[in-house]
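Sample 3 of the quickstart, ligand phenylalanine:
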Amino acid sequence: MTRAKQSIHGSWSSRLAFVLAATGSAVGLGNIWKFPYIAGEHGGGAFVLVYLACIAVIGIPIMMAEVMLGRRGRQSPINSMRTLAAEAGASRYWSWLGWAGVLAGFLILSYYSVIAGWALAYAFRAVGGTFTGATADGVASIFERLTGDPERLMGWHTLFMVMTMIVVARGVRGGLERAVKFLVPSLFVLLLLLDGYAMASGAFDQGLAFLFRADFAKIDANGVLIAMGHAFFTLSLGMGAIMVYGSYLPARASIAKSTITIALLDTLVALLAGMAIFPIVFVNGMEPGAGPGLIFQTLPIAFGHMPGGQVFGTLFFVLLVFAAWTSSISLIEPAVAWLVENRAMSRVRASVITGLTTWLFGLLTVFSFNIWSEFRPLSFVSVFRNATVFDLLDYLTANIMLPLGGFAIAVFSVWVMKRPDSVQELALGDGWAYRLWRVLVRYVTPVAVVIIFLNVTGLVDFSGFLGLSE
Ligand code: PHE
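Result:
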């Protein structure tokens, strides 16, 4: 197969459009919902530092590699990998990397959509004034009533999946490009506003100290793995989302510049979210390790007490939905692109099929918060002692599948792909910038991933399962 100059699915109108779309993919629930709660669960500062190091040393170089593979392959990740492997004279089994990505995207979206459903539900509660004057206990009980009711959760999950399917069915360019242009700046403004509120709350210093004062006694090997997994998750790496977006990137756009911009914006959003949330947590005597409900139990208190809180609260949750929406699209785009390429399906049909399957699988997550909330499928493994089905899906995808995908992308880009090809595609010349990228992707990234994995396996204690303890 000869390499097409353009994807059959079209291309972004400019580099800016790509940056916005990829930022839309990167900025999502991971930044605003997940980052604060996992940082809270793993002790704050040290976790944040490891996460930032992973973004710089692993995330940015892998993102460059993933965009590069996409742009050179110009097809869905599965077919791009097959084409690129052929070009390099390597095994066609490299296309499995694309398949693994499709699976990861499907698993992630299945729970992502349920959480995005919470945000939808909260947008409606905010507009109805439910949070006005609310206490910490009041907000906690609103959260429990929502997540405790499988039918309600299913309803919101369904609505969100339908929204995702509609945009994907229409193609990425028109709607998405426009939505993101408005979304990213507005989200920044609202986060800054919330930071302003947090600053005045009286516990801002305590929040900052929690987030930025590193105490390495508080983080263990599992925490380091979670920080690394989150670096992949938050940048949408390791599953083909960024690869497929790269395949729509105009030929001459700079990959390095775009990537760095995307990573910086993404990190900024996460830090702004953390700085808004932890002061509210502390001033209300709440627990930073509250888990997945953290932002849903803290931010409404702020909205309930600030002037104009009803308006800002509504805007915030609407924007959170938008942020999740622009991410969820990228989670199924690799599968949809493949169905269109290989099964000659229309985008509409491909979106409906992938959407429905994902929706169905999402019910596992819906039930994890209510009828199955006591179900601990892997309680015999020490790190999973308290993990629900939802926790396991999240752990498997973010901390295992994405880093492994990223590892394979790294190996392919610098050990399999011919050097002149990556020099040409990255267009950095053959100077220090290219060499730095190459050293990072060739040695640092794979070694870091392996070390972090090996360290954590020491933590998995199968003794209970084997009947050796207690
Ligand atoms: N980056 C998204 C977020 O932070 C999630 C995501 C992961 C999207 C993987 C696409 C691929 O919410």
